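Example for tutorial group B:
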């Protein structure tokens, strides 16, 4: 089976939106600092672009979650396969994800960090697919709400491909 990628959100619009989210974070945490927890691997491009636009002190660490089940549908059974290495005690944690789909991953991460004596835990995702939600999750920062389509680029992959595209595109199968 072969696939094509059709552009949905271009790089300029993504950059502009990231600057707006960073602006909100800068206002909200003025005089404080933030601790970005980047969810590997998809959120790497977004998290670094966001961090570059944050003007309060930023720490960054990485976590990797996996859900067992078929490859394109979350099973809801979320496991941490790589945890962060730094302490988040007393920190304003912002969990940064590429896309919120069923909601299981971010719900689980929020639950895990709520036990880690942080000052607060915020949830941030570049993309949101509200039609796919199975678990209610209170999001703090969203880049773009998108329809129920499989998308790639700006960190998101299909079978580990297309993460390096500078835009978000919809995967279409021939
Ligand atoms: P959730 O637990 O269902 O919210 O899963 C979110 C995860 O599913 C993301 O971190 C992605 O790894 C993956 N995912 C969901 N939709 C897409 C998509 O359209 N493209 C690429 N990955 C996706
Ligand atoms: Mg992911």
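The residue assignment follows.
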């Amino acid at each position: 089976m072969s696939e094509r990628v059709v552009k949905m959100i271009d790089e300029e619009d993504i950059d502009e939106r990231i600057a707006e989210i960073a602006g909100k974070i800068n206002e909200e945490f003025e005089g404080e600092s933030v601790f970005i927890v980047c969810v590997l691997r998809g959120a790497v491009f977004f998290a670094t672009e966001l961090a570059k636009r944050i003007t309060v002190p930023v720490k960054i660490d990485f976590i990797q979650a996996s859900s067992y089940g078929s490859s394109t549908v979350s099973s809801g059974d979320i496991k941490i396969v790589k945890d962060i290495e730094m302490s988040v005690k007393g920190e304003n944690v912002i969990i940064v994800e590429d896309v919120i789909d069923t909601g299981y991953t971010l719900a689980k991460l929020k639950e895990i960090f709520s036990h880690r004596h942080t000052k607060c835990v915020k949830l941030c995702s570049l993309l949101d697919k509200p039609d796919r939600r199975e678990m209610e999750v209170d999001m703090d920062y969203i880049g773009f709400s998108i329809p129920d389509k499989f998308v790639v680029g700006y960190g998101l992959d299909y079978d580990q491909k297309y993460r390096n595209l500078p835009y978000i595109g919809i995967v279409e199968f021939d």
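The beta strands are 3-9, 34-40, 58-67, 78-82, 92-100, 120-128, 141-145, 151-152, 168-173. Compare this with the pattern of hydrophobic and polar residues in the output above.
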